[in-house]
Amino acid sequence: MNKYNQIEFATSAPSIAAAPEDSRAEVAFVGRSNAGKSSALNIITGVKNLAKTSKTPGRTQLINFFALRDNKYLVDLPGYGYAKVARKTQQEWEQNLAEYLQMREQLRGVVIIMDIRHPLKELDQNMLSWLIENNLPAHILLTKADKLTRNQAHQTLMQVTKAYTEYSSLVSAQIFSALNGTGVDAARNELDKMLG
């Protein structure tokens, strides 16, 4: 039974000031623009168009809150890095993203989306360093695993896991594909742990 299927869009907020004020636990999804964040959210919940997918980087421009039946939220954050928007707009997103991660008391953990072919880019490492410093659990989804052979995918997973061995209590990683469903159950298990 997929309890994450019991979910609906709650609200969008341009900044933390406009975010819901209730005390529900939440897990945020974040990653570089076009790493497959919206596709991951859709397949994990089993709701086809929950998060809008696009081939254009930077489609998600607001902090989107999705309410689960058990009074918790999944939160879709704007992608970081390259996006087809004005530099000023991108700086605003980055500011709002930083404020949300630093100040949101309801945040229980973060799912970081990385394209398995390009993992641990500088911005990904910055994000992980910040989460570790702030003692927030991070779970890495190495997306688009269908683009590699099984052996290549496992080698990449081992590299990523090895890079954060000393923080294994806070950082975990897995292979994932929204296209063929690889790793969906494992991702749901991680959400269960974070949301308690």
Q: What can you tell me about this protein's structure?
A:
The chain has a seven-stranded mixed β-sheet, sandwiched between helices. Helix 1 packs across helix 5. The model has no long low-confidence stretch (mean pLDDT 89). With 196 residues, the chain is α/β, with parallel strands linked by helices. Helix 3 (122-133) links the parallel strand 5 (107-115) and strand 6 (138-143). 33% of the residues lie in helices and 22% in strands. The protein has a single domain (3-195), classed as P-loop containing nucleotide triphosphate hydrolases (Rossmann fold, 3-Layer(aba) Sandwich), CATH 3.40.50.300.
Secondary structure layout:
Elements: E1 7-13, E2 26-31, H1 37-45, E3 63-68, E4 73-76, H2 87-103, E5 107-115, H3 122-133, E6 138-143, H4 150-163, E7 171-175, H5 184-195
Helix pairs in contact: 1-5
Task: Give the key terms.
196 residues, 7-stranded mixed beta sheet, 7 strands, alpha/beta
Task: Give the termini separation.
Answer: 17 Å
Question: Which range best describes the helical content: under 10%, 10-25%, 25-40%, 40-55%, 55-70% or over 70%?
Answer: 25-40%
Helix count? 5
* Dominant shape: globular
Query: How are the strands ordered across the major sheet?
Result: 1-3-4-2-5-6-7
The low-confidence runs, each spanning 5 or more residues with pLDDT under 50, are none
